């Protein structure tokens, strides 16, 4: 590079080398740990062995010979799906906790932001359980260990009938309180009224928990995306692609699930309520944002994303949400299509060095592995024949071998084409 005499190129290489050097000083150890943990993913042979078991006890015995072994000891007498799920998630949470204990800023904040999505799930589930007078200890036991934090137990002391206190406790005492505060502000702004804290009780009594969860995760995703813009170039590139794809998936899911929903697909609510749920980022935003927000049919959704190949193929064979007869255990749904694309993107993150995306990718791939194991455990528990197509509905997290680097830019190229067409009024 220096022989060309181009100072700009020398400067770029210099900064890149310096970036790698400083990354190794602060984050090299924890990155090595996460890449080492990657070796513990279940292999295709293990999956085949799990499929060949005849009972959950045999299923557990196969898992004992893997990295999950220490979490599936002999003290588990009665094996159940819930116990398996709990132990597998506990292992992942312990790994995450260890990584957190070894890192420094800005990786520490990156990991805290990763954890926020699980905190949101736990808080929404526990508040809904408290409102319905479910035993609090049971709710805590069912919480995702990745999203457990000390302040969570403060909800126990709140009167389940006092909605204002219930949500004010969340706003004050939890790490994701700012998201709840912003959500409340958006709801009150949409109503165009000044609502007192006491009137929140009636407001939240009627709001569905999934609406709250989706709104909060939208805010979290936007917040996480903004943070990743400040990271080193490699982290920024991978996380930008991953989070934009996840944002588009959330937008597509919101529209897909709202087809046929009178509240969300009515002309009056398409722009307001859907906007609260769809992230303000992604490859679909802002060029296709208005078109997709007005979709009322599966054909309209396919047409809105037709210029982006990944999304066009993803929606091509999904069932029509208005035709329940198209849904069955053998049919691949929208979630299955999205998980497949996500696994490819997360696997790709391991092919580069010195960036934070591997931490996010590892967590997501491990979650997919847990989904695989639980799905197969349910198949075994139901004693379904091996001819059932459900046995093949798993995605094995592996490093990508079939995905080339140009693929990571294919969506971006499609988006540029859409933008140019819009500018020329040929869209």
Describe this protein's structure.
The chain is mostly helical and 427 residues long. It has 19 helices and no strands. The protein has helices at residues 7-37, 44-51, 56-64, 81-102, 107-131, 136-142, 163-173, 177-191, 200-206, 209-228, 233-258, 262-265, 273-277, 289-293, 298-304, 309-316, 334-348, 357-381, 410-423. Helix 4 (81-102) runs antiparallel to helix 18 (357-381), helix 7 (163-173) crosses helix 8 and helix 10 (209-228) runs antiparallel to helix 11 (233-258). It is globular. Mean pLDDT is 83; it is low at 1-18 and 399-423.
What is the number of helices? 19
Order of helices and strands: HHHHHHHHHHHHHHHHHHH
- Net shape: globular
Give average pLDDT, whole number.
83
Question: C-alpha Rg, in Å?
Answer: 23 Å
Class by alpha and beta content: mainly alpha
